[in-house]
Amino acid sequence: MYDAILAESIMITGHGGDSIEAYSARPMQPGPFGGVVVIHHMPGYDEQTKEIARTFAVHGYNAVVPNLYWREAPGASPDDAAAVARAAGGVPDERLVGDVAGAVAYLKGLSSSNGKVGTIGYCSGGRQSFLAAVSLPLDAAVDCYGAFVVGTPPEGMPLKVGPLVDKTPDLSCPLLGLFGAEDKYPSPEHVAELEAALKAAGKTYEFHTYEGAGHAFFSVNRPAYRPEAAMDGWQKIFAFYGKYLAA
Amino acid sequence: MCTYLTEKIGISGSAKGASGWFTVTDASVYFDHPVHAPYGHTLNIDFLAPEQGPSARVAVELSAESARALAKAIGAVLDSAPPGLE
Q1: Which tens digit of pLDDT belongs to each residue from A108-138?
Q2: What is the pTM of this model?
Q3: CA distance B59 to chain A (A)
Q4: Are A22 and A39 in contact (CB under 8 A)?
Q5: Are A81 and B54 a contacting pair at CB < 8 A?
Q6: Taking the domains of chain B in order of start, what are their residue ranges?
Q7: Span B23-49, pLDDT tens digits
Q8: Interchain pair B28, A87: CB under 8 A
């Protein structure tokens, strides 16, 4: 079976017409393929996130990771860029939506696209995946342990984000949520509140909470990595995208 | 979680980074996920020269215990230095 992929750094048009860096990974076959926008975690546009994009390509999806910190730190190493972005309080919500919209347009413009695009995000990107899905027309969204979809940052925390749960009725697509039972942000109570909002709004969703896992259990290069949760999580992701993006 | 909890201070001094010594003007002190240290959260200090761009940064990531020990040691050394040297 022919299984080549092409992975490369490109420039895409993001929020406000800005040209931003992105990492594209796609199968070298005619398709048609679904598309996935991979939203990187707070520590940035790093090697591990690019590996996630390549994994999607190997599994038959066009994937793209927008570098959300490109404006603050073009060409800088991911950790230096993340330091600048976090000192500024994170990525503004409006800009995030514009950058994801640009990434969606890039994926839909590929000749191998089947016209369907979903998002996936980790950590702060989990919240941003939900934000994109209540702001843009999407076909599927995955939230991996995104904090502050429900709840607000504790007093004194300069994080410039508010809760999104009130926007649940605007959710444009099915949502897959993957959480750790030992996580504090989001805690099991936060996850239950989001689930209640999804039920009340009549949305299609699928939540899984892993025992023995906390925040960032997909992070292969961190002590938080939990192989059993991560491997099962990947299976859930491919089943979910297989249903909503690949068909 | 991503805490974003940050103290920013102006500083005066120098730091040695990947391309040699440079003058630092700012520092960020925060408790959040480390990039490299094997802990869930660490006390991180960035010594910065923002005018020279994002790469003008010397970063350390310390366990909470070692960061407290460091802070104590800094205070102790400064307190025991002979008067008039600062």
Answers
A1: 999 999 999 999 999 999 999 999 999 999 9
A2: 0.92
A3: 9
A4: no
A5: yes
A6: 6-80
A7: 999 999 999 888 899 998 899 999 999
A8: yes
